[in-house]
Amino acid sequence: MENTMLIQLTNHRAAGLLHELEELQIIKVLQENVAPSKTKLSDKYRGVFSKEDAESFENHTQNMRKEWDNT
Description:
It is built from three helices and no strands. By secondary structure, it is mainly α.
């Protein structure tokens, strides 16, 4: 049976418990200290705004930039 799980340890003692389980051949630690993957902001927020809201926000941003450049 091959089940793989990604977990985040919230207590340093948990690593010791995992290593004890590995010694008992209950689990196998595949990697340690794996950094979480960074998602691009465009992927993270895709679909959050409606098309109309996104266009309104874009127009507002462009107007603010023009006002900033005119000062």
